Amino acid sequence: MRIVFDWAGVLFHWQPRQLLRRTLPQHAVDEASAARLEREIFEGYGGDWADFDRGLLAEPELVQRIAARAGLPAAAVRAVVDAVPAELQPMPATVALLRRLHAQGRRLHFLSNMPAPYAEHLERTHDFLRCFESGVVSARVQQIKPEPGIYDTAARRFGAAPHELLFIDDVAVNVQAARDAGWQALHFVDAASVEAQLRDRGWL
């Protein structure tokens, strides 16, 4: 069995409203305005941000599109886009789980919706990503979750049949899409619950 990890929300903290409150305090003045700004900038990770994740949109054009759509100064949007990589800090409990699995000889891969510049930053910065023998970043294959094609691409890249893959993701639609593609999948809530499920299955 191969175990496949998502990145943001599983291995790395991703809390966009807190990011917006810190980066644009003059616009995200409270939880309600931060939530509204989150919708305007990230569009539920559809729209322009999905094209950024897919590798079809470069950062300068992304900034201009968001600024025009959200009525924000381009400099403010640029500040948010630039702040994202530093916001993606490791989640210690999940990293510890990853290291234990690696130490036990489990074959580990990753599958992440991630713009190329952010993925490159994380790969340069965090040595625990070397626990993975291979992985798929959406921008590098120009496909994104939960589209079926990226799961097929990933299975081929990993050299495994779908039923040999167990995917761990914090987004329910991505988990269901993996199951629809023939993978096994766990919905990530926290590292402890995933670890318990892995132990129940005899994989840890």
Describe this structure in words.
This protein is 53% helix and 11% strand. With 204 residues, it is α/β, with parallel strands linked by helices. It has two domains: 2-13 and 89-200, Rossmann fold, CATH 3.40.50.1000; 16-87. A five-stranded parallel β-sheet has the order 3-2-1-4-5, with helices on both faces. Helix 1 packs across helix 2, helix 1 (16-23) crosses helix 5 (74-87) and helix 4 packs across helix 5. The protein is globular and about 50 Å long. The chain starts with a strand and ends with a helix.
Task: Describe the protein's topology.
Elements: E1 2-5, H1 16-23, H2 31-42, H3 47-53, H4 59-70, H5 74-87, H6 92-103, E2 107-112, H7 116-125, E3 134-137, H8 138-141, H9 148-158, E4 165-169, H10 172-180, E5 184-187, H11 191-200
Parallel strand pairs: 1-2, 1-4, 2-3, 4-5
Helix pairs in contact: 1-2, 1-5, 4-5
Number of domain modules: 2
Largest sheet: 5 strands, parallel
- The whole-angstrom Rg is 17 Å
Give me the count of strands.
5
Query: What overall geometry do the principal axes of the alpha carbons give?
Result: globular
Multimerization state: single chain
* CATH class value of the largest domain: Alpha Beta
Strand proportion: 5-15%
Instruction: Briefly note the CATH topology name of the largest domain.
Output: Rossmann fold
The CATH architecture classification of the largest domain is 3-Layer(aba) Sandwich
Order of helices and strands: EHHHHHHEHEHHEHEH
**Which spans of ≥5 residues are poorly predicted at pLDDT below 50?**
none
Count of helical regions: 11
Q: Could you give the distance between the termini?
A: 11 Å
Strand-pairing-aware structural class: alpha/beta
Strand arrangement in the largest pleated sheet = 3-2-1-4-5
Looking at CATH, the homologous superfamily of the largest domain is HAD superfamily/HAD-like
Q: Give the proportion of residues in helices.
A: 40-55%
Mean of residue pLDDT?
A: 96
